[in-house]
Each structure stands twice: as structure tokens, then as C-alpha cells.
Design brief:
- There is one protein chain.
- The protein is mainly alpha-helical.
- It has a domain at 20-85.
- 61% of the residues lie in helices and 3% in strands.
- The protein contains three helices and two strands, in the order ααββα.
- The chain has helices at 19-80, 83-92, 124-131, and strands at 107-108, 120-121.
- A two-stranded antiparallel ribbon has the order 1-2.
- The chain is rod-shaped, with a radius of gyration of 48 Å.
């Protein structure tokens, strides 16, 4: 047996505001915002760390490529400046080895305006011209 009806009409009853509930909701909202900001900053830092990792790996690959190219260029320089290669290139251009008469010993010129004592200047032929 029920003493009260299931739906009781109360249109004139109003509920008052609870200041503690509003304070709790404000604190809960602020806490959630701080927590969400922390998650966003942690995700951002993780993304930045991954990007730095990719950049570092790209720079490491570029460094290896440049070191390989430097080694290849040094080897090419050594090959092109070797005496055997220079001799072959000179013969291909029509050059010949100098004959014994074409080579002269450097001469010492003593005296003169700009010459230091014992300085080597030119060849023996140049010394003969300077002595005249």
C-alpha cells in the first residue's frame, strides 16, 4: 500500500544554489585543464624528440656520404697527380722528356742590387746573361 502518489506535482518548489558544489566543479574543471595541458605538452615533446631523431639520422647519413665522397676525391687526386699518370698525360699531349743539355744547374749570383749573397737565381744560362 502506497501512501504517496508516484508523481507528486510540485511546480512551486525551487532548489537553492549550493556554493560548495559550484566550487567543487570549478576545481575539477581547473584540474582537468591542467591535466590536459600536461598531456598535450608531453605529446608535443615526444613529437619534437622524434623529429630531432629523424634530423640526426639524416645528418649522419649525409656525413657518411660526404666522407665517402671526400675519400673518393682524395683517391682521384692521388691517381691524377701520380708520376705515372702525369707522364702518360704529357706523352698524350705530345710532350717529351727533357734531354741532358736542356737541364742546367742553378747558378749563384753574387752582388747585384736585389740579390742576397749566395742566393740561387735561375739556371746557368740565366746567370751568364746576368753576368754581361
Amino acid at each position: 500500500m502506497r501512501r504517496m502518489p508516484q508523481q507528486y506535482p510540485n511546480p512551486y518548489v525551487t532548489r537553492g544554489r549550493d556554493p560548495r558544489a559550484a566550487r567543487r566543479q570549478a576545481i575539477l574543471l581547473a584540474s582537468c585543464l591542467v591535466l590536459a595541458a600536461g598531456f598535450v605538452s608531453a605529446v608535443r615533446q615526444q613529437i619534437v624528440a622524434v623529429e630531432y631523431g629523424y634530423k640526426t639520422e639524416e645528418l649522419r647519413r649525409e656525413r657518411e656520404r660526404l666522407l665517402d665522397e671526400q675519400q673518393r676525391l682524395r683517391l682521384a687526386l692521388e691517381e691524377t697527380t701520380s708520376p705515372a699518370h702525369l707522364g702518360a698525360a704529357a706523352r698524350a699531349r705530345g710532350m717529351q722528356l727533357p734531354r741532358a743539355g736542356q737541364l742546367g744547374a742553378p747558378a749563384r749570383i753574387e752582388g747585384g742590387e736585389h740579390a742576397r749573397p749566395g742566393a740561387l737565381v735561375g739556371t746557368a744560362a740565366a746567370a751568364a746573361v746576368a753576368a754581361r
